[in-house]
Amino acid sequence: MIASRRLAAVAGLALLTGCRLGPDYRPPATPATAAGAFVSASPTTASADAPPPQWWRLYDDPVLDDLIAQAFAANTDLRVATANLRRARAVLTEARAANLPATTTTASFAEARQTIGTVTGPRPFSSELYRLGFDMSYELDLYGRVRRSIEAARADAAAEAAARDTVAIGVAAETARAYADACSGAAQLAVAERSLKIQSDSFAITERRVAVGRDSPLDVARARAQVEATRATIPDFTAARQSALFRLAVLTGKPPAEIDPRAAACAVPPRLLRPLPVGDGTALLARRPDVRQADRRFAAAGARIGVAKADYFPRITLGAAVTGTGITPEATVSSNGFGYSFGPQISWTFPNFAAVRARVRQNRANAEAAIATFDGTVLTALRETETALSDYANGLDRNAALRSARDQSAEAARIVRLRYGAGSAGFLDVLDAERTLATADAQLAASDAALTTLQVAVFRALGGGWETLPPVARVAPVTRLTP
Fold it and tell me: Shortest CA distance to 305 belongs to which of 154, 160, 152?
């Protein structure tokens, strides 16, 4: 009868386990203006189409595709982010285990030896004691402490997954930019070498004209000065190209010395000649993993308020133990050595709730910080995208103007050389025309390089590139630790 009443009491407590304290998650509000088209997008620079998950394939460059695949497989930052995600998922598994009974199995053996006094004198005495035990405890989650802990751990794991996706976006963008910088460095170097050859040819002509008395030695000095000034730019372009190749090697998980020969052979930077697919603000916020990460951090903070509030109420744990004790192994499992216990255990911080109230306030403050972080992340995402689109649009306008200036400078230089050969123009005119052309060529080459960088910045701000990452569970961890 007593046992029946105890079971009924336990069943009654179990019925209360549907209660959960703390606020339930509600998606944070986003600005209504974020739902429309980007204000910096124009039909000539951007289209309303959504960017593809692997945006770098728009360049139709197999070398770039392969380099980004290598970076996803071996980049050290991505490996760190993947390890952090695995750790968060392990924490979630641990939190879920609290829904199951905790069990402990013990076995012990003790041997005692001592000397005791008897009527016939001291005699040695020894005894053995064997013990087997099995303990089990289960927390009745009356106020949702365990469930809120699982909810928080699940949100943390999702936040780490989003953090990994953010790193992947950066890896793809930096790999594309390093490759473009290497190609652009080669293109700028070629422009400088071409200008150097033209000016060297003019210098040789000037030397011959001075030798026959048609020009003055001053013209030779001026021509040589211009040749050397152009020659001085070549080491800078060479160093920039090598730096980009070194960055590219490290991004793909290799030492700087292992430069990819395909990247080293690239001489034309990849560039899209059609409007970039950018979508709209709603798709941007759904796609950017840093926004998703901030949202999950907010959800975790809210769940931990419930964990803290649960400590206002008693924590009830059902415990059971089975033991066997005997002086022989067989006796431990016999009826004489067998024992058991069963009953609830109640722990409660009542009446001193000061620490509990402090923990609740801490977690409320964390939630307030998390929602502020979310709002800031949304605004940052919109600002970065609008800025990248505006920079790209202005970069296109500048590139078009520089291309026209270069064409006009080339035509002017051609006419001046003809007039100089006919004797109707002085050497200073030739020198000035060639200097202007060399400057225009260099500025246009730099602008071409900047356009690719600006395109990559747009795609990075749009937040794509992580969707095709391999699932973490299917990727063997890169580690030097033995199991």
Answer: 152
Q: Token digits for 127?
A: 């005894």
What is the average pLDDT score of the chain? 87
CA distance 271 to 453: 9
Q: Which fold has domain 101-140+314-347?
A: Outer membrane efflux proteins (OEP) (2.20.200)
pLDDT at 128 over 90: no
The maximal CA–CA distance of the chain, rounded, in angstroms, is: 142
Ordered by start, the domain boundaries in the chain are 10-99+142-313+354-474, 101-140+314-347
Distance CA 203, CA 197 (A): 10
Residues 340, 322: Cα–Cα separation, whole Å: 4
Rounded CA separation 279/382 (Å): 13
Q: Is 138 exposed, middle or buried (0-12, 13-18, 19+ CB in 10 A)?
A: middle
Whole-model pTM: value is 0.84
Calculate what percentage of the chain has a pLDDT beyond 70: 93
Tell me what the mean pLDDT of segment 303-311 comes to.
95
CATH topology of domain 10-99+142-313+354-474: Outer membrane efflux proteins (OEP) (1.20.1600)
Tell me, letter by letter, the H, E, C secondary structure of the chain: CHHHHHHHHHHHHHHHHHCCCCCCCCCCCCCHHHHCCCCCCCCCCEECCCCCCCHHHHHCCHHHHHHHHHHHHHCHHHHHHHHHHHHHHHHHHHHHHCCCCEEEEEEEEEEEEEEEEECCEEEEEEEEEEEEEEEEEEEECCCCHHHHHHHHHHHHHHHHHHHHHHHHHHHHHHHHHHHHHHHHHHHHHHHHHHHHHHHHHHHHHHHHHHHCCCCCHHHHHHHHHHHHHHHHHHHHHHHHHHHHHHHHHHHCCCCCCCCCHHHHHCCCCCCCCCCEECCCHHHHHHHCHHHHHHHHHHHHHHHHHHHHHHHHCCEEEEEEEEEEEECCHHHHCCCCCEEEEEEEEEECCCCCCHHHHHHHHHHHHHHHHHHHHHHHHHHHHHHHHHHHHHHHHHHHHHHHHHHHHHHHHHHHHHHHHHHHHCCCCCHHHHHHHHHHHHHHHHHHHHHHHHHHHHHHHHHHHHCCCCCCCCCHHHCCCCCCCCC
Distance (Å, whole) CA 391 – CA 451: 9
CA angle 141, 144, 148 (to 5 degrees): 125
Residue 309's CB is within 10 A of a number of other CB atoms, namely 22
Cα–Cα distance measured from residue 422 to residue 429, given in angstroms and rounded to the nearest whole number:
13
